[in-house]
């Protein structure tokens, strides 16, 4: 059975990969807690996420494709993703699988964490 969160997850990754931040925000809470994957720590809220992604995309070119989704017993949603990160010259920085773990409230993403797969 497909997760109720799958459409939101697909929209978020599609928006990210297309650099359409507002599309991603349509499935996020305004006070979302978002990890700074390559820097450590978190940013909170739309303005901080926008600034982080804009800066990130000026330094690297990530593409992230969701492969599977699992609803955990604690209510969190685990998404196994294929992640390809290139530098701006097209050289591969990272090519592998990662777990993104989401929390939802009122059908909106309120936080995301990254776990080793």
Note down, in words, how this protein is organized.
The longest helix has 12 residues, at 6-17. It is built from three helices and six strands; from the N terminus they run H-H-E-E-H-E-E-E-E. Strands 2-1-6-5-4-3 form a six-stranded mixed beta sheet. The two termini are 23 Å apart. It has one domain (6-116): Nuclear Transport Factor 2, Chain: A (Roll). It is globular and about 40 Å long. The model has no long low-confidence stretch (mean pLDDT 96). A hairpin with a 5-residue loop joins strand 3 (60-71) and strand 4. 14% of the residues are buried. It has 117 residues and is of the alpha+beta class. This is Nuclear transport factor 2 family protein. It comes from Mucilaginibacter robiniae.
Layout: helices, strands, pairs:
Layout lengths: L5 H12 L3 H5 L2 E8 L6 E3 L1 H12 L2 E12 L5 E11 L4 E14 L2 E9 L1
Question: What is shown here, in short?
Answer:
With 117 residues, this protein is of the alpha+beta class. It has one domain (6-116): Nuclear Transport Factor 2, Chain: A (Roll), CATH 3.10.450.50. The chain is built from 3 helices and 6 strands; from the N terminus they run ααββαββββ.
At CATH's second level, what is the architecture? Roll
In the CATH scheme, what's the topology name? Answer: Nuclear Transport Factor 2, Chain: A
Spatial strand order of the main sheet: 2-1-6-5-4-3
Mean pLDDT across all residues, rounded? 96
Discrete helix count:
3
β-sheet strand percentage = over 45%
Overall geometry: globular
The count of DSSP E runs of length 2 or more, i.e. the number of strands, is: 6
Query: Mind telling me the CATH class?
Result: Alpha Beta
Q: Helix amount, in percent? A: 10-25%
Structural class: alpha+beta
Task: Specify Rg, calculated over alpha carbons.
Answer: 14 Å
What's the SSE pattern? HHEEHEEEE
In total, the number of domains comes to: 1
Give the distance, in angstroms, between the N- and C-terminal Cα atoms: 23 Å
| Low-confidence runs | none
Major sheet details:
6 strands, mixed
Protein name: Nuclear transport factor 2 family protein
InterPro entries: NTF2-like_dom_sf
């Amino acid at each position: 059975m497909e997760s109720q969160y799958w459409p939101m997850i697909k929209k978020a990754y599609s928006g990210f990969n297309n650099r359409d931040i507002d599309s991603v925000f349509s499935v996020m809470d305004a006070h979302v807690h978002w990890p700074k994957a390559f820097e450590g720590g978190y940013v909170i809220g739309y303005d901080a996420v926008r600034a982080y992604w804009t800066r990130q995309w000026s330094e690297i070119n990530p593409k992230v494709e969701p492969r599977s989704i699992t609803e955990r017993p604690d209510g969190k949603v685990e998404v196994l993703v294929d992640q390809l990160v290139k530098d701006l010259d097209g050289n591969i920085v990272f090519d592998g699988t990662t777990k993104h773990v989401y929390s939802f409230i009122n059908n909106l993403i309120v936080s995301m964490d990254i776990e080793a797969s």
